[in-house]
Write a structure and sequence with these properties.
Its main location: cytoplasm. It is found in: Cytoplasm. Keywords: Chaperone, Cytoplasm. The chain is built from two helices and two strands. The chain is mainly α. The chain has a single domain (about 15-110), classed as Helix Hairpins (Orthogonal Bundle). The chain has a two-stranded antiparallel ribbon with strand order 1-2. The longest helix is centred in the first third of the chain and has 47 residues, at about 5-50. It is elongated.
C-alpha cells in the first residue's frame, strides 16, 4: 500500500484548516446577526414595559408584532411572552455558538501547529 506523500499531507491539512477557518467566520457572522436580533428584542420588551407604566386610559391592549415578514396584532401580554421566549432561545443559541467557536478556534490553532493560547478560556462556572 502506497503511503501518501508529504505534499499530499500538507495539502490535506491546508484543506482542513481552510474549512475550519470558514466555519469560524460563519459562526462569527452568525453571532453578530443573533446579537442584533437580541438587541431588537430587548428594545421591543423595553417599549412594552414602558407602555404598561402609562395610565390605564393610554395603555394599548394589543400590540403589533413583526414575525419574519408578517405583522400580527396580538394582545400585549402574549406579544411580550413571545418576545421573552425568543430572547431566551437567542441567548441559548448565542452561548452554544460561542462554545463551538472556542473549540473550533482551538482546533484550528492545533492544525496550524501554533501554540494554543485559548486554553484559559475554556473555564466553566462552578454554579452551573
Amino acid at each position: 500500500m502506497a503511503q501518501p506523500s508529504e505534499a499530499a499531507l500538507v495539502q490535506q491539512n491546508l484543506m482542513k484548516a481552510e474549512v475550519l477557518a470558514e466555519d469560524i467566520l460563519i459562526d462569527k457572522q452568525q453571532l453578530i446577526d443573533l446579537d442584533r436580533r437580541r438587541n431588537t428584542n430587548r428594545e421591543a420588551l423595553r417599549q412594552i414595559t414602558d407602555a404598561k407604566k402609562r395610565p390605564l386610559a393610554q395603555q394599548e391592549k394589543k400590540t403589533w408584532l413583526c414575525m419574519r415578514d408578517i405583522f400580527i396584532l396580538l394582545p400585549t401580554d402574549t406579544a411580550e411572552s413571545f418576545i421573552s421566549k425568543d430572547q431566551k432561545m437567542l441567548d441559548e443559541k448565542i452561548n452554544t455558538t460561542r462554545d463551538e467557536l472556542k473549540h473550533k478556534t482551538s482546533k484550528l490553532s492545533q492544525i496550524e501547529g501554533a501554540p494554543d493560547h485559548s486554553k484559559p478560556f475554556f473555564l466553566n462556572p462552578i454554579n452551573k
